[in-house]
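Changelog-adjacent note: as of this version, every example in the card shows the full chain rather than a window. The one below runs 154 residues end to end.
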Amino acid sequence: MDVKLIEPISRKLNHLGRAYLSLLAKQVESLGISRYYYALTYICHHDGKLTQKALANELGKDKSIIVNIIDTLSEEGFVYREINPADRREHLLKVTEKAKKAVPKIIKAFETLNQSLTEDISDEEMKIFNTVLTKMGTNIKPLTTPETNNETKP
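Full-length structure tokens:
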């Protein structure tokens, strides 16, 4: 049987993402953070002004995944929740002193790793790469919504 082999786009993206996160984890392992590096930097950037719901929207993650992220970062001593005095149904996300010390080092690790990965890539090539990724993200959104999913249940 002659089967045409087609490599999914996601295969290379996943491979690159895993390699990147592995290198990043090695660079920041002394800080006591196991994962969710970008989420922590994002929370720190908006310290005390960001709700769990807003974080979910900004990161494009399901609310239940955000709860797991916050729980993990909380258990590791980086963030905590505080009830929003303006709306007691909401929790504002705040960072601890441990996070305030760790985040600049995480950002530096991002910068170093990003610079190493893009060393022989021109600014124009990076613009094209980012444009293509953005377009792919736009193209995949309608494919992932239940309303446009044409799969039928048996």
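Structural remarks: The domain at 34-114 is CATH 1.10.10.10 (Arc Repressor Mutant, subunit A).
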